[in-house]
Amino acid sequence: MLDEIKTVDAAMMFHPSTRTTAICSNLCREAIEFEFRGRAVHAAGETWRGVNALEAAMLTFSAINALRQHLRPGVLVHGIIAEGGEAPNIIPDRAVIRLYVRAKTPEELEEASERVKNCARGAALATGAEVKIRNYANTYLNMITNMTLAEALERNLRALGVEIDESREGRGSTDMGNVSHHVPAVHAYIKIAPEGTPGHSHEFAEAAVSEEAEKMILIGAKALAMTVIDLLTKPELMRRVEFEKVVRGRGNLDA
């Protein structure tokens, strides 16, 4: 797959948003699952024989909350207890946490993830449970916006009558970040909902099926096509896109 990606000249996409911009950043993300195994007994019987997997899960969250003050600025940790027992009169012998750790760079992500994993290891030791740690989804890298490519896309958006907002510092994560570490790439945003509409909400879902959203999606598709034509018909532009990729490497928006 990596060899195939290296044959691509450039990659562009739009993500629905409340603003339109081609210049954005996103965070790295690791998706971690902690599976705790304990020993089930009657919750009102010989409880000293039990090992409470749910307590290990809750203790993990307490340890993570204590850790937050000591994480680097921009690091995010958020998750859920996906499984925590089946009946209140049984000490849970299995509990599962699923969470995301996000950070600005792969190095910061690796550091933060290891500290979060230690929270689960410590909770297992404290309660007598066993813990298995695995990734339940792909790890995403930070987005490296190719500024030359982004500026070309924004010129075409303006030509289509779209108002462009300033660059966006995203706190989400995307597999387009992984692509951007290998080929010149842009992860652009197109406005389909009013400013202030929460993302991943019922309000945003309603906006996504509106006539205005359909209009903006078509404009975005035209802008992408126009930019591809620019790259194919203007060799100097393609050379500048490629040159920026070589110079910036794994840089960021501040590079």
Short description:
The chain is of the alpha/beta class and 255 residues long. Helix content is 40%, strand content 20%.
Key features?
255 residues, alpha/beta, Alpha-Beta Plaits, 2 domains, 8 strands, disordered C terminus
Task: Walk me through the structure.
This protein has two domains: 2-26 and 142-248, Zn peptidases (Aminopeptidase, 3-Layer(aba) Sandwich); 28-135, Alpha-Beta Plaits (2-Layer Sandwich), CATH 3.30.70.360. The protein has eight helices and eight strands; from the N terminus they run αβββαββαβαβαβααα. The protein has helices spanning 2-5, 53-67, 106-127, 147-159, 176-180, 202-208, 211-233, 235-248; strands at 11-17, 24-25, 28-37, 76-83, 94-103, 130-135, 168-169, 185-191. Strands 4-5-3-6 form a four-stranded antiparallel sheet, with helices on one face. Strands 1-8 form a two-stranded parallel ribbon. α7 crosses α8. The longest helix is centred in the last third of the chain and has 23 residues, at 211-233.
CATH topology of the largest domain: Aminopeptidase
Mean pLDDT: 92
Which CATH-level-2 architecture of the largest domain?
3-Layer(aba) Sandwich
Give the end-to-end Cα distance, rounded to a whole number of Å: 28 Å
Number of E-type strands? 8
Residue windows where pLDDT falls under 50 for at least 5 positions? 250-255
Compute the CA-based radius of gyration.
23 Å
- Total DSSP helices: 8
**Helix percent band:** 40-55%
Sum up the overall morphology in one term.
Answer: elongated
Task: Tell me the strand percentage band.
Answer: 15-25%
- Could you name the CATH class of the largest domain? Alpha Beta
Strand order of the largest sheet: 4-5-3-6
